[in-house]
Design goal:
With 344 residues, this protein is of the alpha/beta class. The protein folds into 2 domains: 174 residues, Rossmann fold, CATH 3.40.50.11090; 149 residues, Glycogen Phosphorylase B (Rossmann fold), CATH 3.40.50. 35% of the residues lie in helices and 19% in strands. The chain is built from 11 helices and 13 strands. The strands form 2 sheets. Strands 3-2-1-4-5-6-7 form a 7-stranded parallel sheet. A 6-stranded parallel sheet has the order 10-9-8-11-12-13, sandwiched between helices. The radius of gyration is 20 Å and the shape is globular. The model has no long low-confidence stretch (mean pLDDT 94).
Length: 344
């Protein structure tokens, strides 16, 4: 079958939602499908769109895609820029809005809901997309399924995200790691990084030998003190071996997540997870069992959770052991099989 994936921007950064789409696209090619990925510019100005088209030519792919996958970069998603297909899959609110206005030539319509995007879309418009009658809706977490049910939508299909445990795996002894805490840093308010930064600064004052590493897609923010190591756009190999496997604790400070991929990846690499109750980690984070959890925007609670693990080797080992067992419950093949059931 011919299958389209619609993405809301050009994807020059390794965004989690894009990586999930790319994983599905590669595996669907292996099953004999013809895949097209259509990227909207996300810009209102055509000059900026053309500039971005030129930039794309010089940027290395952030994720290896099968060579047969067709990539189209368009100014806006509409009936003329989206190719005819047997199935078209919207992957974000703006792409669902565009698909909703297209003709039947786009085939069966599927809405892969990867977050409750209130940070980028007015709530009334967002909720309307969830209620589209002409789209089969997939949610990636139980948190999102609950949001749908609260909106009166009970026909969503739950297909959880997963990671490749042959890539994200334990490679270093948990007792001998360079960093006490690792965290993904972002200037997006929804990621809550300022609260995570405040937490590790408090701990550094209390424990002078405390070591921290941040990573992110942008250059080092001026707010990050020099004593914190920072890696811009780490390769997957570096992320696995030098960050996740080199850190005792992974801190997720997000205010809201559709699914928290980094904490799950870190958990698979033997880091004990401290996370906010952001919704998107509930599928694999069980407080006191596979992670320690705190409320969003609560710096003091983050400090308390990190300190409990930092001072208690037995708790640390228990969280790591249970975390490693938990991530094994999520299989990409299982999720792919569920997706195939929806496609048919």
């Amino acid at each position: 079958m011919k299958i389209n994936f619609l993405l809301p921007c050009f994807g020059t950064r390794p965004l989690g939602g894009f990586r999930i789409v790319y994983q599905y696209a590669n595996k669907l090619v292996d099953k004999g499908h013809k895949i097209s990925i259509i990227y909207a510019s996300g810009k209102e100005n055509k000059f900026l769109f053309l500039a971005m088209r030129l930039v794309i030519l010089f940027i290395k792919d952030v994720f290896p895609l099968h060579k047969s996958i067709r990539k189209l970069y368009v100014f806006k998603l509409n009936n003329n820029t989206i190719p005819s297909a047997d199935i078209t899959i919207a992957t974000a609110c703006t792409t669902a809005v565009a698909l909703n206005s297209c003709s039947e030539s786009k085939g069966k319509r599927i809405y892969l809901i990867q977050g409750y995007e209130t940070w980028s879309t007015p709530r009334d418009i967002l909720n309307e997309t969830w209620r589209y009658k002409n789209m089969k809706k997939i949610v990636i977490s139980k948190y999102l399924k609950t949001i749908g049910e609260n909106l009166g939508i009970f026909d969503t299909t739950y297909i959880p995200n997963s990671i490749d445990c042959s890539l994200f795996r334990l490679t270093k002894n948990i007792a001998y790691r360079k960093y006490n805490v690792a965290m993904m840093y972002s200037d997006q308010e929804i990621k809550g990084s300022k609260y995570g930064l405040q937490a590790v600064e408090i701990l550094k004052k209390k424990y002078p030998d405390f070591k921290v590493i941040f990573f992110g897609v942008k250059s080092r923010d001026k707010e990050i003190p020099k004593w914190i190591d920072y890696i811009k756009n780490p390769s997957q190999e570096f992320l696995v071996n030098d960050i996740y496997n080199n850190s005792s604790i992974y801190l997720c400070s997000s205010i809201s997540e559709g699914w928290g991929l980094p904490p799950m990846e870190a958990m698979a690499c033997g880091a004990a997870v401290v996370t906010t109750r952001n919704g998107g980690v509930d599928d694999f984070c069980v407080n006191g069992e596979t992670a320690l959890m705190c409320e969003v925007k609560k710096t003091e609670q983050m400090v308390e959770c990190i300190e409990k693990i930092y001072l208690n080797a037995e708790l640390h080992a228990s969280l790591v052991k249970c975390g490693l067992e938990k991530v094994e419950e999520f299989s990409f093949e299982k999720s792919l099989n569920k997706l195939n059931e929806v496609l048919v």
